[in-house]
Amino acid sequence: MAEEKTFPLRLTGAQRKVVAGLFHDLTPRVLRDTTNQRTIQFTRSEMKKIAQACRAVVRKAETGMERNSLRHVAAAAEQAIEKFTDGGIAHIPAAERVYQFKIVLKGIQPPIWRRIQTKDCILDKLHERDPVVTVRQAAGFELFIRGAEAAPATEALITALNDSDLKVQRVAAAALSMIGPSAHAALRALAALRNVSDQKLRAWIAEAEMRIGREVI
To answer: Three-state SS for 98?
Structure first.
């Protein structure tokens, strides 16, 4: 009979201690070193038993630290099972993987959001590119700003223009540029920010003013 394949599961010292407390037969494997994070090899059946056992005893934990460790171990094991199951992401070559993101404009009701998909993406690199560009690329994003929703959206975006977070300001200016003439109420707020030091925000403000004012004049 072929030996069952094993897969990696990264656990901290505290997390390995709770696993050893539940499964004495795993103690030699998980407690070689309890000071740092280590990657331990488990079979899928072992991971399943670990996840189920941790979930079952969470409420019986004597301390908050133990309770957190149990929850984290269960979550890590469940994610590993999903990842390494046939058809899971681990079986898809990195170059062929597609990552999905949900983008939501803050402070706007009803909620305005879009999902986008990108291949071979590192989250840090996505942030470096500028979230406004990502929002602009979301298919059909401008549809929300038509008709009756334009006015409340404009009001919320005017407030966002004065947010302390520069990225929020950029997104607000970009969204106003998509609304176009219906966002004429935002022209004064945009004009007040023409001389901001951030070059990207100035560019979005100029575009928003052009698109809003082009058909208003």
So the answer is: strand
The backbone region for 88, taken as left when phi is positive above 0, alpha when psi lies in -120 to 50, beta otherwise, is beta
Greater model confidence, 149 or 187: 187
Give one word for 116, left, alpha or beta, with left for phi > 0 and alpha for psi -120 to 50. beta
Which amino acid does the sequence have at 140? G
pLDDT at 107: 61
Helix (H, G, I), strand (E, B) or coil at 208: helix
Strands 38-43 and 98-104: unpaired
Return d(Cα 174, Cα 192) in angstroms, integer: 16
Q: Which residues, 6 or more positions from 61, have their beta carbon under 8 angstroms from its beta carbon? A: 67, 70
User: Would you give the distance in Å from CA 146 to the centre of its chain?
Assistant: 28
Q: Name the nearest CA neighbour of 152 among 96, 208, 94, 109.
A: 109
- Residue pair 103/112 in contact by the 8 Å Cβ criterion: no
Residue that is written with structure tokens 């970009």 in the block:
174
CA 20, CA 50: separation in Å to the nearest integer? 10
